[in-house]
Design goal:
Elements: H1 10-25, H2 31-44, H3 46-49, E1 50-51, E2 54-55, H4 57-63, H5 65-80
Antiparallel strand pairs: 1-2
Helix pairs in contact: 1-2, 1-4, 2-5
């Protein structure tokens, strides 16, 4: 699965996050690949994903609560690991 790591806008980033998580939920991508892709998106687009310690408004609106719960877990793994 190919996802551009360097996103142009917050909406593009949200669409990529949605794609990765939806593919995981549909069993088209395994868990380790999903975690790897979310971590890479987070690392390369932190400024578009998080502002002042919280998700940006566009990210929250576009991704939704359930997907952001998954992103939270992946980011916690990234910061701990």
């Amino acid at each position: 699965m190919d996802v551009k790591l360097f996103q142009k806008t917050q909406r593009d980033l949200a669409a990529s996050i949605n794609l990765v998580i939806d593919k995981y939920w549909e069993d088209e991508v395994n868990e380790s690949k999903m975690v790897e892709l979310i971590q890479k998106l987070y690392i390369t687009n932190t400024n578009k994903l998080v502002k002042n310690g919280d998700y940006t408004t566009i990210i929250r609106q576009q991704c939704g609560k359930r997907r952001l719960e998954v992103v939270d877990q992946v980011i916690k793994q990234t910061n701990v690991g």
